[in-house]
Amino acid sequence: MKCKRCRRSEAAVDLPSHNSAFCPECFFVFFRRQVEEGIRKFRMLSPSDRVLVCVSGGKDSLVLWDILSELGFRTEGLHIDLGIDGYSARSREKSLAYAVSRGKELIVVDLRAEGVPIPAAAKRSSKEECAVCGTVKRYFFNRIAAERGFTAVATGHNLDDEAARLLGNLLHWDSDHLSRQHPLLPESADGLVRKVKPLWRVSEMETAAYGFLKGIDYVTEECPMSEDATSLVYKKALSHIEDEMPGTRRRFYQGFLHQNRDVPKNSVALDQGEETPPVKCISCGAPTYTEICSFCRLKEKVTKTRGRS
Ligand code: SF4
Ligand SMILES: [Zn+2]
Ligand SMILES: [Zn+2]
With 70 as the cut, is the pLDDT of residue 245 above it? Predict the structure, then answer.
């Protein structure tokens, strides 16, 4: 099949959801335009921004870093080593290798050194690994960005991630999460740095194709903790619908954003369940709605339990 854009080269990427197929060069143009449009639509980033890109070592985050650099944004990477045996070492290695190959700065936070490796922290706090991981990652994304003068934090969530999250929120009629689900959360007066998801218009398959064609070497294994993640069930359901009716996933998520035109407020309240004015954590100074922030409470619990065992 010929590329539907240049009509000369052989098509390498088939995109039924866009009723199109592109050769590598035209696919890069398509992908770049999708990301540019995603950024432009919500005025997520401007050329003066310093962007902290959260890099797990997987395809989405490395592709995000690659495309933001190509679009000319000033970026540095942040990798959080979760302290998961084997998987974390391999993820860190891929993140570092990418940074070195592109001459980019990568900041690494090691959760073992911070006293909160995810498996042990989950066990000692009697919480799900992914819940603990979410709290810890949100904390460090904001802390590192605020401490080092970044104006935006970017994560590699793609269309499949956001659509799956939307389906989950709708199935549970979770109005709180629904009202805050957006590719842009602006900076807040209480010390939260702007959060953006520039890949919200591109699918997982498109991101994977971009990574492959660009020769980006990423971790292909999934996090071992993701096996029970409910998001995978929603992704599977949406993939089934998408196979039968290409383009449904995109219409589902874009339709939601169209209905909810207001960009939500960025707030730590979601993490802590309250809507009172924020204060500074007495232990670390992070914005919080309780005396001690959720990260410091977790750390305290983990350290105390370790002391007893
Ligand atoms: S699957 Fe869970 S533990 Fe693993 S990186 Fe994702 S949120 Fe963290
Ligand atoms: Zn072409
Ligand atoms: Zn704190």
Answer: yes
